[in-house]
Design a protein that fits this description.
Layout lengths: L3 H17 L10 E3 L8 E4 L4 H4 L3 H15 L3 E7 L2 E6 L1 H11 L14 E5 L11 H19 L3 E8 L4 H13 L5 H4 L3 H21 L8 H14 L3 H25 L5 E4 H4 L4 H9 L4 E2 L5 E4 L7 E5 L7 H16 L3 E7 L3 H14 L7 E6 L2 E2 L15 H19 L7 H21 L7 E2 L2 H4 L7 H17 L16 H11 L1 H11 L3 H20 L7 H24 L9
Parallel strand pairs: 5-6, 5-11, 6-7, 11-12, 13-14
Antiparallel strand pairs: 1-2, 2-4, 3-4, 8-9, 9-10
Helix pairs in contact: 1-3, 4-19, 4-22, 5-20, 6-8, 6-9, 8-10, 12-13, 15-16, 18-21, 18-22, 19-21, 19-22, 20-21, 21-22
């Protein structure tokens, strides 16, 4: 496969050197895809050459265009719009490209680069079920992991499960007060939902108790929760046994939700096992003058020169804060996994925390500090507004998954499109459609933006949605099934490339570079929106051109093109964790 961008950039450098005696670096050539309202596939910005050439941009464009057309066999024509040189590629190159890649269902994926990246995501508390906010985190983490893998990295997917602390003890003490020994099995309820019920119950009790207290007085149930935490830290056997039991209920519930979302992890870390880590690095940092100790014995770091502030890293009684354990956990994972890059998928409310953590790791001189990145994302709201865990108004992940699948069922009934299939086949297709609706709706938004999720809008077959893209893939598969008895695998002498065909091919051509760019930008929305544009372009091509009922050379080429589109859509949506159905 020719690297057209590299060929053009090198040609531009030779051209400006020959025409204007200007030495110009290849990686500084400004080259982009040509806008759709102009003829051509690639555009060179010529403004940087005006000083050396001492000519108007339009003149430079004409002279450089003629040079490239004469010296590069790939360039067959050009046009100049002000300071922009639009280049047209020989159509045969695009035709040969389709012949080359149409059977390659791995097209776009890079060879291994020998580098390892760890992606941490989900990392829930074990006192409530996963909810809509977690879903965005999980989907971003999964997609980031898959995109990095496609970009050539060895990826380790991990999470730190927040299984200790006062919030966990609140669910425990509420169960002790009102649970009467019941278990999830007694009510046929998922364990995470069962424990989450007691977290809500705790807050109701605390609110009722505080109503009868003077200002500043602590609710008795909060005092009990604090006592339970102290017992846990002292390894009280009875407290630990209850903690393990309730956490096991939650883990079984989480596992089911992860399975429904198609998500797995390679390694797990538990806060109960990591919260004491980091103290050795604090001691070493004190010796090296990186940290300083206050009169009360607490340990701090001065980050004012990095436009941060003074940050506590160890309490006066020698106990850890979150920063302490994050320092220790990062080092442990480096020792365990050897990752050169560590990506933390955490909401944007923790932006400051990660700026401080990364700055501390740089000052500690750890070898992986430059590879640490916070994939910060905005919160997810519903059309009805924000959600609140302690008030029980959060939309549970399980309920949301069920809702989008039900929306897919409702749409299928209206269309009556798969009614002839067996019920289990229908259910599997509708599961894929519902989950595609959920995942794509969240993935199409840049992670840094806050967003509103609308379940009904997400399953629209004609909108900017996952099912719309799935429908393009289904069209490809339908065409290929109809062509199954035809002999179209041989060579083709097709020459008359149509604009809609060229649009599809040039989009496919960019896919490998797009994966690399998406990985470097930590932005799965690039892949999502590419898939939408490719699906939309295929729908247009399908409506405007016959594929099967045309002369043989045309038919064979369009089938190869369709197959190529199918592979890229399947790969691209797969990077987002979206399965593609054969029928809809």
């Amino acid at each position: 496969m020719k690297d057209l961008q590299d060929i053009i950039k090198k040609g531009v450098c030779k051209g400006v050197n020959s025409l204007y005696e200007l030495e110009f670096e290849v990686d500084k050539v400004n080259l982009a895809a040509t806008r759709k309202d102009f003829e051509g596939e690639y555009t060179v910005v010529v403004f940087p050459f005006t000083k050396a050439a001492k000519k108007k941009p339009e003149v430079i464009g004409e002279e450089l265009g003629n040079f490239l057309k004469e010296n590069l066999e790939e360039i067959v024509d050009f046009n100049v719009v002000k300071g922009f040189l639009n280049l047209s590629i020989d159509p045969q190159i695009w035709i040969d490209f389709v012949k080359e890649i149409h059977q390659n269902d791995k097209f776009g994926r890079a060879e291994s680069n020998g580098k390892k990246v760890m992606v941490e995501f989900s990392s829930p508390n074990t006192n409530k079920p996963l909810h809509l906010g977690h879903i965005r985190n999980i989907l971003l983490g999964w997609a980031c992991s898959e995109i990095y893998s496609a970009a050539g990295y060895d990826v380790v997917k991990t999470q730190v499960i927040n299984d200790r602390g006062i919030h966990i003890c609140k669910s425990m003490v509420a169960w002790l007060h009102t649970g009467n020994g019941e278990t999830p099995a007694d009510h046929d309820i998922k364990g995470d939902h069962f424990v989450g019920k007691y977290y809500v119950k705790y807050n109701q009790i605390e609110k009722e108790q505080k109503a009868g207290l003077k200002e500043g007085e602590e609710a008795p149930i909060l005092t009990e929760a604090r006592s339970l935490l102290q017992k846990w830290e002292a390894n009280d056997p009875e407290t630990r046994k209850l903690w393990e039991t309730m956490n096991s209920w939650v883990y079984s519930g989480f596992d089911q939700t992860y399975e429904d979302l198609g998500v797995t992890f390679d390694t797990l870390y538990y806060e109960s096992q990591t919260y004491l880590l980091g103290k050795t690095y604090i001691d070493q940092g004190l010796k090296d003058g990186i940290f300083y100790k206050k009169e009360d014995g607490s340990v701090w770091i001065d980050l004012e020169d990095a436009k941060l502030d003074h940050k506590l890293v160890q309490r006066s009684d020698g106990t850890s804060v979150y920063m302490t354990q994050d320092i220790g956990t990062a080092q442990k994972r480096y020792e365990d996994l050897g990752s050169e890059k560590m990506v933390y998928v955490v909401g944007d409310e923790q932006n400051y925390h990660f700026k401080v953590l990364f700055e501390i790791m740089k000052r500690l001189g750890v070898p992986y500090s430059e590879g640490m990145y916070h994939l910060s994302y905005g919160m997810v709201d519903l059309p009805s507004g924000k959600m609140k865990s302690r008030e029980g108004t959060v939309v549970d992940a399980d309920d949301l998954i069920a809702e989008v699948i039900q929306e897919a069922h409702n749409g299928a009934k209206e269309r009556g499109s798969i009614g002839e299939l067996e019920q289990d086949q229908q259910d599997e297709i509708l599961r894929k459609i519902g989950l595609a609706a959920l995942k794509f709706f969240i993935m199409k938004v840049n992670p840094k933006k806050r967003m509103v999720f609308n379940p009904k809008e997400s399953v629209d077959m004609q909108g900017h949605t996952g099912p719309y893209i799935q429908n393009a893939y289904v069209r490809v598969k339908s065409v290929l099934r109809k062509a199954a008895e035809m002999d179209w695998a041989g060579d083709t002498s097709y020459k008359d490339l149509k604009p809609e065909e060229k649009e599809l091919i040039t989009m496919i051509y960019t896919f490998p570079d797009l994966i690399q760019h998406s990985a470097k930008s930590y932005d799965p929305s690039m892949i999502a929106n590419f898939c939408y544009d490719l699906g939309k372009a295929y729908h247009k091509f399908y409506h405007e051109h016959q594929i099967l009922k045309v002369e043989e050379n045309t038919r064979n080429f369009r089938l190869k093109l369709s197959e190529s589109v199918g592979h890229v859509l399947n790969t691209g949506m797969g990077l987002l964790g979206i399965e593609m159905p054969e029928r809809m």
